[in-house]
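Standup notes, structure subgroup. Blocker cleared on the zinc ion input:
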Amino acid sequence: MVSQRERLKDIMVDMARGRDIGNKLEFDPRDKRVKPVSDRSYSSPYSYPDPDGAMNISKTDADLFGEGARRDGRIVITTAILEDLEKDVAVPVHFSGNASERVFHLLGGGVDGVRFHGSLIAVDDPGHIRVQTIGFETDDVRLILEWSDIEGQKESLKAVAANALGMIRDGGEWVQVAVDLVPVKEELFSRFGGLLETNALADAKVAIFGQGSGGSHIAIELVKSGVGRFHLIDHDRLEVCNVARHQCDLADIGRLKVRAMADAIKRKNPYADVTTWPLKAEWEQFETVLEIVREVDLVFAATDSHASKLLINQACVQEGKTCIFAGAHRRAHGGQVIRVRPGKSICFQCFSMLLPDQVQDQEISSEEHAEGLAYTDRPVAIEPGLSTDIAPIALMATKIGIQELLRDKPTTFRSLDQDLVADWFLWLNRREAGTQFENLKPLAYEVDGMHILRWYGIKIDRHEGCPICGDFEANYSDENLNAVLQSLKATEGVTR
Ligand SMILES: [Zn+2]
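Run returned:
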């Protein structure tokens, strides 16, 4: 024998799931009563011609109804959206979401992707709104809020969500789902509490040259750390072979990497400000590069060509901006991070003159780059490298970058200042055959000596004869001239 309450529950759960069970009941939030729907082709969930057929509903029964709805769908919106709402004005919006899971979001940001038409309206009494009178023909999602709740929303977000009427269209039928109201902006970086101020990096401006695997990883780690303003520079488009190591995915194939990454950044933080520059860092663009560098607090160079690194270096030294160079060695057997603090450290030109081999031992990531190295006796196929081998280098570059951005701010990361004093950091992923690292002792349980899978900070002094940050003329020698020419030779063919 099925009790009336169980029957009520079954019917309510079916209703919440949008199943047509023939004998339809309807819950009216105005008086918390369940009523039969006599007009089977009804157009509004709250138009019922026979109020005498209503059943009283207890709080427990109401909770059951709530549970049914809650299990089966959800509309999640950010509180920021409420600020622009006007009473009785239906606003067309695009929800992102997953129709099969019946989860729809309105969380801000200009994120591309799967979208659902919807409308949002605030009225005095949600229960009285006839659904067909608001919203738009094409709507998949409708959200009706109570105006008085919105006005007092600071007191209780839960009240706004509880009284909201979230409706999704499921197979032609409107179904009520639960509504969540989230203060996204406030909660986004709330887990930083105690480590640094949650908005410490919100105004930090960075430029990232190169949005390949390394640059895209740096961008995502920066936005996850709370950095709020980005300039992304890259002329390339995403190809299928990039995806395994890139932060973007197959849905972004064919897009400019900078645009796809702008969306990826906004998926993490819709309040981030991203400026995209679909251009190649080459000498013809030097004025634009200078303009970008001037704009920002910190620069990252994650490009794959030596010529572009020299150019970015020159712009940063000229503008006095710190620049972090990140790069993988060939086949990503290791990598390095070089921090250029103009006037205080080596610059990338110095580095190229002092260590031409290190500079050339970089990953070959494009056909163009492979051709550029054709004068060497190295294999010139586009080199493989795993994401796990590139990630540590991108993470270290980001870590050093954040330390730079927090330089004058109170944070528990201050102790790192004493650790991250080197301007050149080296990392080895493995004991690669054919390199000087081939015969290192295995890591095993070793604590002494040089091993793979750890960072080495290396002290390196500026080159006095550096034409960019030193005094080339005062320190002129044939040796210095050769060093400069040698460093430029590494760029031959790459730029053309
Ligand atoms: Zn220099």
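Discussed briefly. The chain has three domains: 4-69, 73-186, 193-489.
Next: hand off to the docking folks.
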